[in-house]
Amino acid sequence: MYCAHCIGERQRQCVRALDDENSLLLAFMKLRLDCPNEDLAQRFSITAGTVSRIFTSYLMVMYHAFKSAQLPAWPSRAQIDAAMPQKFRDLYPTTRTIIDCTEFPIQIPSDPDTQRVTWSTYKNRNTFKALVCITPSGAISFISSLCGGSVSDREITKTCGVLDLLDKGDSVMADKGFTIKELCEGMSPVLFPFGEQYFMVAISAVNSSLQ
To answer: What angle (nearest 5°) sits at the alpha carbon of residue 85, between those of residues 156 and 69?
Structure first.
């Protein structure tokens, strides 16, 4: 199940404490439910330290697996149109992607420069930040590289390469806090702010596509 070159010998020994199925289940439970290591240790009859090492090992395995598969994949215009919910077809038919940034809290770095770069005034703590794009049907289509929490949403959008993936006539939906409209000058994308009415339409459309 795991790639031998992805993890060290000590981590491989910890992975062997559980079979592949249960190790993967443990990793998914940690990701989806954020179960404490002590809770998972009790559930799987292993130590909390072994839980941590198994989780780290499977994160590395999943990273290499998804990277080699080139996921997430940027869908074509035809694929977007084929899966577009009806409410998007009616109201925003040229939508190619919906973008937003998300932040992940991290431990306080010991290096002062790294502390500065990762300090997020929005979260009031040290974070990593990434731009995430989804299709109108709700599938993740793009994830940027991680940046420090001090980097603005505008700068990440400008440098991550997502704007280069857009075709003529595409529209991008973004929160009104994304001050990136000028980045699209000379291009075709149009930015739609998330008003309360639009947000409810988007949620309804995505939910209906999943039914």
So the answer is: 50
Q: Is 40 left (phi over 0), alpha (psi -120 to 50) or beta?
A: alpha
Per-residue pLDDT reduced to its tens digit, 31-87: 999 999 999 999 999 999 999 999 999 999 888 888 777 777 899 999 999 999 998
**Residue the block writes with tokens 């149109």:** 81
Residue 71, pLDDT score: 74
Distances (CA, A) of 58 to 43, 197, 206: 18, 41, 30
The tokens describing 104, both together, are 């992940």
- N-terminal to C-terminal alpha carbon distance within the chain: 32
Report CA-CA distances (Å) from 105 to 20, 112, 133, 167: 29, 17, 20, 34
Tens digits of per-residue pLDDT, 140-186?
999 999 999 999 998 998 899 998 898 877 888 887 677 776 776 54
